[in-house]
Amino acid sequence: MVDAEIAKVLGSPAQCTFRYTSAGKPILALKGTPGATVTTAVLKVNAHLVELQPAGGDGNLFLTSGPISVTLSVDEVQAGEKVEADMVFAIGESLRVGYSGYYQCGG
Predict the structure, then answer these.
(1) Whole-prediction pTM value?
(2) Residues 6+ apart with CB under 8 A from 75
(3) For the residues 58-65, what does the mean pLDDT come to?
């Protein structure tokens, strides 16, 4: 995703992002900051932007929109710090894919 797509859904640039590679474009962008509550997130599926809402979780960040869900497993991160993280993307019961990548807030 590019900044304009993210801002279209979040209303401003992303405060936190998940990327496959340390320098790649974000595949998941979140409105929130380290230590604060995420209020909304966006990812792109089949060329469509999908807004996700927090839905609780067991220490992980769990986001949903209809049958789409994303679970982000990340240790505590300081502003500007890039850390390794894992993301699981699922659509209902028919698709479940795990990714390792990098999570960063601010900076």
Answers:
(1) 0.85
(2) 83, 85
(3) 84
